[in-house]
What we know:
About 8% of the residues have low confidence. The relative contact order is 0.18. The longest helix has 13 residues. The chain is an alpha+beta fold. The strands form two sheets. A three-stranded antiparallel beta sheet has the order 3-4-5, covered by helices on one side. It has a two-stranded antiparallel ribbon with strand order 1-2. It has one domain: CATH 2.40.50.40.
Amino acid sequence: xxxxxxALYFHLTVLYLAEPAGNMxxxxxxxxxxKIPLSLVKNYERTGDKCPQEAxxxxxxxxRSICANPGQAWVQKYIEYLDQMSK
Length: 87
């Protein structure tokens, strides 16, 4: 039940916005408050400038989108790690 609640929360915090060119843009309206396990994370993207809140969106290995605050130290470390792995 805990994972179901967590998954539902994550899906409620991500909004997909359509841009004029037909591209989908993802925005976050809240972020996780606790560190997620790095082993669950596959990649990331940053929200665009049209979004009301700056955030990092981690994509999990199971296909979920998780919004995180880019100012948190663990988020910055995950980004550095993922950037190194993609080289």
